[in-house]
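User: Predict the structure for this protein chain, please.
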Amino acid sequence: MIKFLISLGLLLLAKLSVFSQTDLGAAKLDKRIGWYEKINVRGYTQFRYNRLFETNPKLKCEQCDRSWGENGGFSIRRLRLVFFGQISERVFYYFQPDFSNAVSSAQGIAQIRDMYIDLGFDKKNQYRLRIGQSKVPFGFENLQSSQNRITLDRADALNSGIPNERDLGLFFYYAPVKIRQLYSALISDGLKGSGDYGVLAVGLYNGQSVNRLELNNRPHFVARITYPWKINNQIIETGIQMYSGNYVLASEQLSKGVKYKNDLSFIDRRIAASVTWYPKPLGIQAEYNIGQSPEYNSLTDSIKLNKLKGGYVQAFYKANVKSQVFIPFVKYHYYKGGKKAELDARSYTVKELEIGVEWQIIPQLELVIMYTISDRRFEDFVLQSNHQFGRLLRIQTQVNF
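Assistant: Here is the predicted structure, written as structure tokens:
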């Protein structure tokens, strides 16, 4: 597969060079338009408060939102700018920093989320090679933008496989023009699509998660097939995806005293199925995955390879009231397994119900109110026999620009 993707890249560069004279000629004909004039800017900011009617301050979710629970408060969950543009016929540029990250107790740290280019094989860019840091094509909800997703956080079950949804790598995408146009319409029409990640995607990526160094010489492999079916006025998208590789636990992920393999390398693989019935006006979204990953074992105080499973189902309804949009929703998700990116590959059993509504007041302003009923067991070497249950009301205001 590595040789295949390298050969694919060389072929693409050769094709690009054939058309370089045409591109240069076009540039000479219109010197008034520079590449920098083709760069667009957009962004969004999310303000949150998670502690209304909270029944258990010890209930937390590191993967979801670190302002859950005790010592949490008002927070800026995301503050993102996106710089993007088709800077030439076959080159697309995308850069997204986030200014709301935290390092220890310091808040508001800038960090790269996405930084990639798409190189098109053909004039219609049906075949693309994506190079850089971007979302890994695994799952539907993982690929949905946080700006577009209904619930405040992604479900533990699939998101634990690709923490922060992104990594450095090389990805090949294919989708015909009509499908690419449909993917775009699913976003612009407010139907909560996941974006254009092709009907076919294959790629190689580091596998250590976003903004982390590679710790072995074996990249992860990912493949995804998905298709949006049009049935009368309804659109149903089905997909299947998988990834496989070896994940290496970093030293800072280990508690003093926990037992582990000498090389800290563990098999890391999953397969998932996805189905989405787009809201016209009723919508249903569901995903489920199984696999293997490192997980803390409390009986032996060690980190071992273990099986995992879990998924979610979500029902929602899109109601247009004059110029405003209301989307009530209910979501249940379940997960049992380890989270490789957390301390000691923390062990989890999650059962969670979320009920809420998204209110799109104007295109630039949205409000989400969500009531969460959560039952979480999360254990590592420090947190022994840690089982928390609670309820809380969560509120988010989102500004789009």
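The longest strand covers residues 282-297.
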